[in-house]
Amino acid sequence: MPRTITTDDTRQQYDVHGEGGGIGEYLLHRAKPHLPPWLAGAGAGLASLPAHYFWSGEPGVTAGLTLASVALTGLTWWAGKSTTQQRRLHSAVTVAAASTWFTAAAIAGPGAGPLGELYFIGAPALALSWNIRQILRKNVEGLAAGADGGFLEKVGLAKTQVIRTEVGPNKAAFDLQLPRGELTSTDVSKNLERIAGALDVPKTAVRMTEDPESASRVTLTVVPLDLLKNTVPCPGPSHPGGSIADPVHVGIYEDGTPAVIYFPGDPKAGRNAAHFLVMGMTGSGKSEGGLTALAEVVTRRDVIVWASDPAKAEQTLGPLLPAIDWAALDMPSTKAMIEALKAAIPVRTAWLAKYGYKQWEPACAETQADGSPGMPYLIGWFEEAAKAIREIDDDVFTGISQEARSAGVSLVISMQRASGNQVSTDTRASLGSSWVHGVRSEGDARFALDDEVLDAGAAPHVWKDKKPGYSYLVANGVNDALWATPLRDYLTGVDYLNWAVINFADIRASIDPTTAGVAARTVDRAFTARTRYPIPGTTDQPETTMLNGYGPDEDEENGYYPDEDDYDMRPPYGADQDDDYEEGEFIDAEQELPQVEQVVQLAARPPADEPRPKISTADARAAMEEVLEEFEEEGRDVVGPADFMAYCDRYGRGRSWVSGQVAQFVLAGRLAETSEVGRYRIVPYEVAA
């Protein structure tokens, strides 16, 4: 256990017999620390008597004593160079005065001339000067400054006092009282590198924490050995089957304390919901840290994940894809996911208000009092977000980061460098929490870490890509004193990720009707036909989810798509549209055809010359307007040419003409393009006008 030295310990050291023994014993104990100067003075006076008796009148002895006096004075000055200037000068003057008097007394006699008076005046004066110095060193407000005053003076912290010391096996903490009006915490932060050099430890081993109650006090922490140099395997889920409101363990600090992050807020703890900026250069272990956090998330019962990685696709998220509700692995689906998130925020917020929740809490994921299904927490995780920002807009995440917390949504943006060219300052300011791995320069570190954290000793630019997994965590719910403390992310192998996906499949939440409904109405098949990856060992091919009804008030008959026959049966979003089947591949051409046993008439063939209904162009356009109004009345939000072709008997035109009319609707503002080609969002008349 660390040992703390306080002022009470110092008082006890000099008051051992304060509660027992007589007065004489007490006075003797109190006088002991001050006796050495007096004993030295008395010894010099007594020694002068035999010296004068044996050495008086000896010229050689006189010369020897003079040289010895000079030599002792010089040796004292040289030996005192490692102490304070005041102590060095005081020691040299004392030795010079004592040795000079002793030489004169040995030659002429202690009582010759003024030597007697000088002894009885000078010896007590010198002894008292050392007693006074010793008393001033025993400062009742703290420890003696003499032990480390020289060191602090060397590193630019002269007059600083150590008022408390805490020493552990690999950690030492010092509470420093700075000279009021002369030094501030800024002076200490500027000298951290000098302190590290004086102690012969890495720069990241020395950190400073300000005292929130006093600007003249700081805590200096020194960790001489790097205990994070060995990788730390993930110990397993911290709260298996628990709530996402429980802390998510992502690594371990250098003193063995688990490093945790929080996603939802907690009003009792005074903690807001968190958005995260995850940053680190290539090779810093940023993506591995993200997998560690997501591996924890997928073991919880009341959270769903929408994850995007348009740059590396399945390379990073691959093992966790079966546990992710929506994986956007290309730019079109990433754009759709962002649009769905924007649209989901007001709808989810309205749901929370309807059931009396000021913010998301675990009870939101349970069945509500009226029997309605609950709403799990939603995490939007965007790996390699710089690509999405570059191809869409640098403000693409600003609205989400500013509004999503109140809707039970956390946004995570992961990128290599969050510079002003990559992400807007408004987005960066709204993210709030940072998880920073090794970066190339201190300027890069300032994009994610506040100046206060860097001044306290955080230095991710020292690691660069040389120490993968090393990181700093500045987040809601994390103690401020740990913001500048290095941690190392847990290492999660593929086998562990597969284990988490498989073993917690039964407890993971499904998407709620509220969020699913707004996503379907906003981006249509980009969501409804999203690829769903199977649990390992169940099937070899990904599945696509095709939902018929969304929202608490919709059913199979009045859903977004009333029946599968009414659905535009194009290939799923982003799927290959080529037919892999080759005609005749599995047919034996020599085999005889079976005899006809029964003839079934499926439908009457229409006459070859049956004409298509003839209506004017104006009537056809009016019919298109009527169909569009019917779609609005049915509650549809997204349509395409295939939907209009189902009503071709009204306007007697071909698909190319219908597509042209849809384009006219877009130009007129009645339809708006979505992220999926060939699908358009209906714009109400009053908005289009």
Which helices and strands, and how do they pair?
Elements: E1 3-5, H1 7-13, H2 23-31, H3 35-55, H4 59-79, H5 85-108, H6 115-137, H7 149-154, E2 161-167, E3 172-177, H8 185-190, H9 192-199, E4 206-211, E5 214-222, E6 232-233, E7 248-253, E8 258-261, E9 275-279, H10 286-297, E10 303-308, H11 314-317, E11 326-328, H12 331-354, E12 377-382, H13 385-391, H14 398-403, E13 409-415, H15 425-431, E14 432-437, H16 442-445, H17 451-455, H18 460-463, E15 470-474, E16 487-491, H19 494-503, H20 513-523, H21 525-528, E17 531-532, E18 543-544, H22 617-634, E19 638-639, H23 641-645, H24 655-668, E20 671-673, E21 680-682, H25 685-688
Parallel strand pairs: 6-16, 9-13, 9-14, 10-11, 10-12, 12-13
Antiparallel strand pairs: 1-2, 2-3, 3-5, 4-5, 7-8, 7-16, 14-15, 15-16, 17-18, 19-21, 20-21
